[in-house]
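Bumping with the actual sequence this time:
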Amino acid sequence: MHKFILTLTCLLALLAGTAHAQQQLEIIKLQSRTADQVLPQLRPFIEPGGALSGMNNQIFIRASDANRRQIRELLAAIDRPPRRLVISVRQDADSTSLARGGEVSGSVGSDRVRIESGRTVVSGTGVTVRRGDDVVRGQVYDSRNSGSERVAQQVQVVEGGRAYINVGTSVPVPLRQVVLTPGGAIVSESVVYRDLGTGFTAEPQLSGDMVTLTISPTHDTPGSHGPGSANVQRLTTTVSARLGEWMQIGGSVQEESADRDGTLRYSTRRGSTGRSVQLKVEELP
């Protein structure tokens, strides 16, 4: 009954303007899209004094023959099955670290007085010199490390739709609550779970072979600062790209350094981590 009343209302609104002899009412049944999807694209082309409405899979046009013919031609290009897409996202990280240093340790002195230097155990190349009870040790080290992480994900979606993917784990986090009451403190302990994972949400819109995409990739990993800590990478952007081509949509570089210089030892540490996020959208047959 509700649909019948709504349809009747649309028809009456259109028939109210039939005083214009050159304008006629036409009902068009949609094949692949809904009225809500096509009406915003058709309304700019309706002539002054004409009317356009619709519901479900039908649209109602009151316009001249020429204008209705124009609307039908536009509708033929719009009322098609949504194009199928596959969105690929790569989130990469490359890290390097360098550590250099040296130290001198041992004990040197007379029978009455001895001067000693503590020794720090590190891996490297060393030499030891002994003369009687005197011992002098020298050591130098030079280490380099590098690592990389590659995460690639894909998800299928139709144009105008919304895609979401997230892969990861739920990490238990201890929770301790203390409530003060007139009778004393009440302590309760429990465990909550924090989701850590890698994924993205995306909403693509097509225009020919160009795609405009609103995308929010995430990459969360467990941190090293105690239970519940996390390393978080977030990005939200809207970009345009050509179908089938990779493009970088974001990135970051983090560098750290530390130098220590003393009488008997020195050390230098350098580290850097570079992250990048790439995107590609392809059309499926």
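The tokens above came from a reply further down the thread. The longest helix spans residues 2-15.
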